[in-house]
Amino acid sequence: MPRPTKGARLGGGPSHEPLLLAGLARELFQYGRITTTEAKARRLRPLAEKLITKAKKGDIHNRRLVRKTITDVSVLHTLFTEIAPRFENRPGGYTRITKIGGRRGDNAPMAVIELVEGEIATKATVAEAEAATKRSVKEAETKAAETKAAEAAETKAAEAEETKADEAAETTEA
């Protein structure tokens, strides 16, 4: 049986805590960003990251494990079809916590927890970018060489025409 965490229970008892975190995770996946207290955001982050990792695997076993926490079927569908594929190449760090100051009524430290939008560059992506750069440089060099060869051919053709014109002029003079 899981042992409840020590310390503050986020405003409730030990049986209320997983339900509170599940509700926060559901809202995070539904809206992509939520504003909550800093303590709740810090407790939500590992849970949300584990759920996204399970959703990335996408098999029926992991879907059932996530279903234990996220009971709303539409949010579960969104997690598996939209959110998980977005983080397919990302090894972790799916959420970001930003502190926004104290709450107006009681000055409780507030934070925004959101899903990270940008993709990070993986080794494969970096290698593809380097290969594309090398390819474009090689193509530019080839194009420059072709242009130079074309110019040289035009110059030779122009010189040949001048030579013929000179010979023709000499022939007519003689």
From TrEMBL:
Signal sequence extent: none
Regions of compositional bias (Basic and acidic residues) in chain numbering: 131-167
One GO cellular component term: cytosolic large ribosomal subunit
Molecular-function annotations in GO: structural constituent of ribosome
Keywords: Ribonucleoprotein, Ribosomal protein
Key word Cell inner membrane present: no
Region (Disordered): 131-174
Superkingdom of origin: Bacteria
Annotated GO biological process: translation
NCBIfam families for the chain: L17
Family per similarity comment: Belongs to the bacterial ribosomal protein bL17 family.
Subunit organization: Part of the 50S ribosomal subunit. Contacts protein L32.
Protein name, per record: Large ribosomal subunit protein bL17
Source organism per UniProt: Kitasatospora setae (strain ATCC 33774 / DSM 43861 / JCM 3304 / KCC A-0304 / NBRC 14216 / KM-6054) (Streptomyces setae)
